[in-house]
Amino acid sequence: MSKEEPLIVFDKVILHYGDGAPVLKNISLSLYEKSFYFLTGASGAGKTSLMRLLYMGIKPSSGQLKICNKNVSEISSDELCELRRRIGVVFQDFNLLNHLTVLENVALPLKVTGESKKRREYQAKEILDWVGLGNCFDIFPDTLSGGQKQRVAIARAIITRPDILLADEPTGNVDEKIANKLMGLFYGMHKIGACVIVATHYRQFVDTFHYNELVLNNGFLSSNDYSTKGDS
To answer: What's the pTM value of the predicted model, to 2 decimals?
Structure first.
């Protein structure tokens, strides 16, 4: 994909559940590699729905959503699986598997892609060292603190070096010191080329880190810069 081509394009996207009123209304947006956005808005504004569209948990009710130049409403199941491998997701509730060790949790995306055990364990250890958990390989998630679990979730999300990294309220369960460390990890992914979108209600981070902001208000989206192509 050319650097000038957007990774994500929303074109007049509307989303509603069943016969209910639209949750997202006429969303138009283009995001490029090496861009970093905070997604903000009051509770019920539509942040979770927008994130679900981005990781393709749901499809638009109308309009067009393209991710990596693929129309998500038209691709096959196989293409959808392949496309999802280019997206890393950090969920607010971690979604770790407690019967697997930290190392096994982080290596899981590589197992899905068919990577050898030796290679996936090597890469998982490397990523865990990077997020500061090099001493936790054989520990099970239920023995970890909230901040440690969040870093495991981030390590799992970035092990495939995704083109797009989505984080849903990643600092909601940790203190300010850990939250700053997490932001440093997201910044690192942003600098090596990922498009990073962090949904947050924590105003202090939005005001401290001077990244672009997407603001949802009653289903409508506004932004301080719709056409950012990242910093080189």
So the answer is: 0.87
